[in-house]
Design goal:
4-stranded mixed sheet; 8 strands; alpha+beta
Length: 165
């Protein structure tokens, strides 16, 4: 037998017994008038109600809120399985590893050029210091940012990591 996709809970003849006068039991309260357990469904989600009434809810006495009655309750959507979630995670991580590592913080803060007359003959003897802050596009500090210095022909002449400040 095929499961229906929607159900409706209706109470053609609502019980007039007082819930507060019934004896508390595990699944709700016991009605001495009907000699039945009345299940408290008032805090149940739609998916739980649907599953209960599809499996074994046939002729059940229950307590409901007005919002649970006389409307379509749909079959719960199956949650993706563990293997599916692992496959999605692997796919996303492999996609992200294909991006350049420095793409997220590749912002040029300042470009400084050295006048040709002031250039030293040997760049290996040149020392300088750069002061400032390395930040991302959200103005958050980037500790250990890779700082690269290029000459006017776009040749890398120095590379260093910044400190934590």
């Amino acid at each position: 037998m095929r499961k229906p996709k929607t159900i409706q809970i209706t109470l053609p003849k609502p019980c007039h017994e007082d819930w507060n006068n019934m004896t508390p039991v595990e699944r709700g309260r016991f009605c001495t008038h009907c000699q039945k357990t009345v299940v408290d469904f008032t805090n149940w989600r739609d998916a739980d109600l649907f599953n209960f009434f599809i499996k074994d809810g046939g002729n059940t006495c229950g307590r409901f809120t007005n919002l649970q009655l006389d409307r379509n309750l749909t079959a719960p959507v199956a949650q993706p399985g563990f293997i599916y979630r692992i496959a999605i995670a692997l796919g996303l991580s492999s996609l992200l590893t294909q991006l350049p590592a420095a793409a997220f913080a590749q912002h040029t803060v300042h470009k400084h050029s050295i006048h040709p007359k002031k250039q030293l003959k040997s760049l290996s003897k040149m020392t300088c210091s750069i002061k400032g802050h390395t930040t991302d596009q959200y103005e958050e500090l980037i500790p250990a940012a890779q700082i690269e210095v290029y000459d006017d022909k776009a040749h890398l002449i120095a590379s260093v990591k910044s400190d934590e400040n």
